[in-house]
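Hey,
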Amino acid sequence: MSLEDRDDARSQAASAGPWGAPAPEPAGQPPQPGPATSKRCRHFFSAAFFALMVLVVGARAYQDLSRPEAWAYWKDLYFSSDMTSSRLADTGLDRSGRRRAALAINGTIGAAAASWFRDRLDEAHLAAGDIVLMSSPGGDLNQAIIIGEIIRSRRLATAVGVAAPSGHIRPSYCASACVLAFAGGTTRLGVEGSMLGVHRFVALTPGRDPVAETQRTAGMVLNYLTRMGVSSSVAEAMSATSDVRWLGAREAAAMSLVTDPARRP
């Protein structure tokens, strides 16, 4: 090697630094992704997975909520319940003079009435033997049965009436599905002047035989009333007419629908 060649080599080594020039990448090998590239890929796949899950869940929710009964349930539970309630410190309906608190409920039994009722009971802090005071034209059959089951599980009494601004109880009415909720009381108080209205329940489920569905509903109602200690004559009175048949407190007592004789409010 000539002197000039040696000087050129030394000059190149000096410009590369003390460790010399970096080793070149092997030919034909693609560059390896750095940490920033890997992080962007993970974010992309996470976002894509999240979007896919939103689409799947959203489609299922739309399918569920597109049913009329589903919309009715959410409306009744979260937006505008058809029922109202108030707590009474004493109803004055106990002949022994015991103060019995009550939860007075009024209005149509909606698609989410049982959940609404359970929440109102929790807020009212009623004790066993206290009263659920009802005034309703009826409504959802299944929700009424669940309300009756809740009343029975908490060992509450039932009565038909409304609370006047003075705090006194005035007569009222409880018809159709409301009668099933009333039947849940461990004691069912009669209030002079109040009425219970019964009629035949007709089931209209799209795509199903209406006769078979009505028979199934009648069997369910009879089974429920029997468990609540109500005479089968009430179910017979329901089946006998499509119009409302009004029962006074004394007639309802003869059918074991009212278990504590009528008293004046």
